[in-house]
Amino acid sequence: MVLLRMGGVVGWVAKGQGMKSISKRIGSLIAIVFALPILSTRLEASQCFDISKGQPEHLSGQLIYRIFPGSPNFEDVTAGDEPEPAYILRLTSPICLTGDEFANEAEPVSTVQLFAATATEALLRSLVGKDVQVRLAGQAAAITGHHHAPLLASALEISPTADITDEYGTAATTVRAFYYALADGNGDQAAQYVIPEKRNRGPLSASAISAFYSNLAKPLQLVSLEPQTRGRFLARYTFERKSQTCVGRSVVETTRRNGKNLISSIRALDGC
In terms of pTM, does the model score above 0.85? Predict the structure, then answer.
């Protein structure tokens, strides 16, 4: 055996071996050397989750809505296959799955089929096309043609991925703080973000806010805050009161007083 160096690659070859054969071996060595970093990068890029342990619990990506062809042929709705609408989460980064006989750890997973929970059915419809964060339950690997992503899960909670820095210097900071105070059931704090003439009487008063929001079965959660026209915002939120689950929206009007942004009125759109 002799030691041969070629192109920065070192390898052992047998004496008397032809140069054509040696070149082939060197080529194989070079291919392996260059492939190793690529394989390593691919493995590092995919985070693995164990389905049998209820993983992954949280994922993020873009929420899309598609109609897939179902029975009998799973090929084309226009050719007579049943339409199967589905919510699909297109992941920000691919993952891999273990812990299920139908999960192949070697195959990167980039989509998840989401099923609505009671509290998220309306939210899923409203957040299509947006980047979202989702809390999952009931994770399972796809088995049949009726499953349209490698991973299936129920969406227990879903909210848009927002860049809070975009709100700096705007009335959105006041509105967000108001809903955070509602989440704590703190009427005194929430009323400080309302115009003075509405702080002591009416639905925006400290006493009214505390009486309602401090006695909820599940505290209010602000889902999203979207600017509309100047000084107007659309707030989306959820809460539970006894056996009632609210998935609500409100139009929040703000005004400028003495250099401060304050809430002047709130109009609920969904009865809660």
Answer: no
